[in-house]
Amino acid sequence: MTHPYEEMKEMKKLKKHYDMLGFICDAQYGIPTRCPCGGEIMQDVSPNPKYPSDFDTLPGSRYFTCKKYEDDGMHFRQPWAFGVEEEVKSLRREVNDMAEEIAQLKRLITSRP
Q1: For residue 65, what is the DSSP state?
Q2: Does the global pTM surpass 0.70?
Q3: Nearest to 25 by CA among 74, 71, 70
Q4: Contact between residue 81 and residue 56 where contact means Cβ atoms under 8 Å apart
Q5: 62-66, strands of its sheet edge to edge
Q6: DSSP track, 75-100
Q7: Tens of pLDDT, residue by residue, the chain (113 residues)
Q8: Beta strands in 12-83 (DSSP E)
């Protein structure tokens, strides 16, 4: 039987670990600029081609990867296409919001006598 203090200490350690995993999952949106570990993000290409018929100059899949990447769930390794797609969606939303605001301002300016 373990001491209650040691058991509580282990529970807190596990809770902190799982909270961090949740934060990392929530942070993987768009093009990453920094990894939660503080490491720099680089564009990486997997060495193996995705399909045998790939004859591209950069075979394989592209990723945004932390320089200190380890497969422990605490570092980013995000497919390049997903990151760029999410970033484009975000930019489109911003442009649509700005266009709506401009239209409102035009209506406001033209409606005044």
Answers
A1: E
A2: no
A3: 74
A4: no
A5: 41-45, 62-66, 77-79
A6: S-EEEHHHHHHHHHHHHHHHHHHHHH
A7: 678 888 888 999 888 888 877 777 766 677 888 887 878 888 888 777 666 655 555 556 788 888 888 877 777 788 888 888 888 999 999 999 999 999 999 999 998 76
A8: 41-45, 62-66, 77-79
